[in-house]
Amino acid sequence: KVRFCLHQDGMSVRTPKLISVVRSRVPSGFVSVGGVVAPLRLPQGHLRQALSPSGYLARLPDELRYALRWLAQKDGLAQDALLLTSPAERSRARLLAFAYAELVNAELECLAISADTTESDLKQRREICPGGNITFSDAPPVRAALKGRVLVLDGLERAERNVLPTLNNLLENREMSLDDGRFLIPEARYAAIDRGSTRAVETSISEVKLAPVHPLFRVIALASPCPPFAGRALDPPLRSRFQALMVPPVSAAELSTTLSSLPQDLRNALVGASETIAELERQAIRHDGSVHFFSFSCSALSRYCATSPLQAAGPYEILQSVYPPLGDVSNASTTQSHATVKQALRKLGIIPSRQTDSNDEHVDWSVSGTHFRTPTILAVISAIRADMAAGRNILLLGSRGGGKSALVRAMQNDTWRTFTLHRDLSARDILQRRVTDPATGASQWADQPLVTAARKGNVVVLDGLHRLPQGVAVAALSRLCTDRELDLPDGTRLVDEERLKHLEISDSVKPLPVSSSLIALAEPGDWLTPELASLFSTHFLPDLSPLELRHALAAIVPGAPRELCQTVSDIATSASLTQLDTSLSVGERTALHLSIRMLLRLVRRTSNCSGGAKSVA
C-alpha cells in the first residue's frame, strides 16, 4: 500500500534541486507518495480553490494507488504523463488524473478533445468587445500554463491530425506564441532575463510581451492505444513529449469488492460475466490485431450498482443496462462478436432461454393521448422512472419512428427541456453557442438547452443522439455523466452541489443541482461506442408485434375500419422482413422500413377515403 506523508517544511526533503526550483513559488510544502516527493500547490488543510478537484481521492481504488506514486515521480521530474486505457474504461484513467491533482492540492483545467477541436481551443479565441474592439481569451492550456495548474487532455486519439502538434513546443520547451502577441517562456529563463536586463533590454521585453510559464504547470493526457482500438495514432513527435503508463483494467477481485453490497449469488454472476466478456475481447485482439468488439466497462457496472434502488431483478437485466449488445432491439447486435458474447453468457446461465410468443389473441393495452401502452412498454417506463429516481442518466434505444419521443412526452412534465440534435453540432455547440449582443455588438456565449436545464436541476431530453458525429457526444457529456461536473466553453465549471461546499466561492464555478439528469433518444447502430454506452443506463423500446400493432392503429385512430388496420399491419410485417435481408444495401433497407409514425399517417388518410382498405391494397 502507498503511504502519503506531508511535509510543510521543504528543507526536510532530500531533493535540493527540486527545492531550488519550487521554493520561490511554492512555500506550501511537499507530499510524499511511497517515498516519492511531489510539491504541494496549497498548504494541507487550506480551503481548496475553486478549480481544485474534490472527492476523487476517496473514490480511487486501492489497485490504482501505485499509479499515484508514478505520477508523483513524473511531477517531481517536471515531466508530462500519458495515461493509456481502453475507451470503455476512460473514466478510470480520468479518476486517477483527478485524484492526483486533489492529492497535491492543484487546480485543474480539463479539455475534452474531439474531431472539431481547433487551434483556437488550444491557444486563444478572438472576442469582440463592446464598441467593436478585439480581444483574446485564453484557452485552458494557456490558463493552466500561466497559473501553474494541471491540464488534463481527454481523448487524444479523437483529434484530427495537425491539431495537437500546436502544443508540441509548450510540452517540450514550455514555449508558445499567442495570437495576442505574447510569447510564453519558462519562468527560469524569464527570471534570468529580468535579473540581467538593462533599460534597453526591458524595452525589448515589453515589446515582445514575454509571459512566464509557471514551474508547476503539468499535463496529464488520456488516450487509448490505436491500434488495437479505433482512433488516430499519436504522431511520434507528440508521443515523445509524454511518459506513458498503461492503466490496468478492473480485476475480478476489485470488481467483487466494489459489488460487496449485492447478494453473493448476484455478485458472483456479474463478476463471472464481466470476466467472460473481457476474455473474449482479449482473444479478439490476439487473433485479429484490432478490436471489432464491444468492450465491457466494469466501471460503468460499478457506478450502476452503487446507486439504489436496483430495479433489475437479475444479472441479465443489470448487464443489459450497461452493455447494450445484449439488448433485443433490431440491428443492435448484428456482429459475430455480439453473438459470441450471448452464446457464452447463455452457457453460464445468465441469459434466460427465449420464450416462445403466445398465440393468444388477447392483448392488455391502454391509450394515453396518442401513445399506445402495452405491458412491455409500461415495464420500460417503470424501469426508466426507477433509474431516474436513482440519479442515473438514460439512453433509450428504439427503431426509427418506433415511439421513443411519444413515450418520453407521456412521462415528462413542464420542467423538462428537449434538445433536438443534428449532425452539424460540435461538442461546443451542445453546451453553448456564440451569439452577438444586439445592443453593444459584443460576442458572448449563450447556454444551450442542455446547460440551461443542468443549471436549474431539470431533465433534458437529447433527441437524436445517433445523429452526432463520432466522438462529439463523449467529449461533451463524459464528465457530466461520470463525475457530475461540466466544463463550459466560456470557462465556467458546473460542480455538484455537495462537492461545491468544500471549495472556495468563485464566479467561475457554479452549482450543479442533484436533480439534473439526461434522457438520450437514439436508434441502434454502429455509432454507439463502448465509451459512450458506459455513460448511460440503456433501455430498449421493442417493436410492436403484429397483434399489438393492429390494436394500436385501431385505438389511436378510432374511426379506422378493422380491415384497414389488419391490412396495414400485414404490410408492416412484410416490410419488417426486408430488414433481415442481407442482399439489400443499408439504404435500401432504410427506405423499406415502415415506422409507426408512417403507418398512423397511412391509416388516417386512408380511413377518410371511400375505398378504405381496398385503396391501400
Account of the 3D structure:
This protein has 617 residues and is an alpha/beta fold. It contains 27 helices and 25 strands. A hairpin with a 5-residue loop joins strand 6 and strand 7 (134-138).
Strand content: 15-25%
Contiguous helical run count: 27
Distance between the termini: 75 Å
Task: Report the radius of gyration as a whole number of Å.
Answer: 28 Å
Determine the fraction of residues in helical runs and give it as a percent range: 25-40%
Seen as an oligomer or otherwise, the chain set is: single chain
Q: Kindly report the spatial arrangement of strands forming the biggest sheet.
A: 5-8-12-4-13
Q: Could you describe the largest sheet, including whether it forms a barrel?
A: 5 strands, parallel
Number of strands: 25
Q: Average pLDDT value?
A: 82
What is the SS-derived class?
alpha/beta
Low-confidence stretches: 6-27, 330-334, 355-362
The outline comes out as: globular
Keywords:
single chain, 617 residues, alpha/beta, 5-stranded parallel β-sheet, 39% helix
Write the layout of secondary structure elements.
Layout: E1 4-7, H1 16-22, E2 30-33, E3 36-39, H2 56-59, H3 65-76, E4 80-84, H4 90-103, E5 108-112, H5 119-122, E6 124-128, E7 134-138, H6 140-147, E8 150-154, H7 168-173, E9 176-177, E10 183-186, H8 187-195, H9 199-208, E11 210-213, E12 218-223, H10 236-239, E13 242-246, H11 252-258, H12 264-288, H13 298-306, H14 315-322, H15 336-347, E14 366-368, E15 371-373, H16 375-389, E16 394-398, H17 404-411, E17 417-420, H18 427-431, E18 432-436, E19 443-447, H19 449-456, E20 459-463, H20 472-482, E21 485-487, E22 493-496, H21 497-500, E23 509-512, E24 517-522, H22 530-533, E25 537-541, H23 546-556, H24 562-577, H25 586-591, H26 596-607, H27 613-616
Parallel strand pairs: 4-12, 4-13, 5-8, 8-12, 10-11, 16-24, 16-25, 17-20, 20-24, 22-23
Antiparallel strand pairs: 1-2, 2-3, 6-7, 9-10, 14-15, 18-19, 21-22
Helix pairs in contact: 12-15, 13-14, 23-24, 24-26
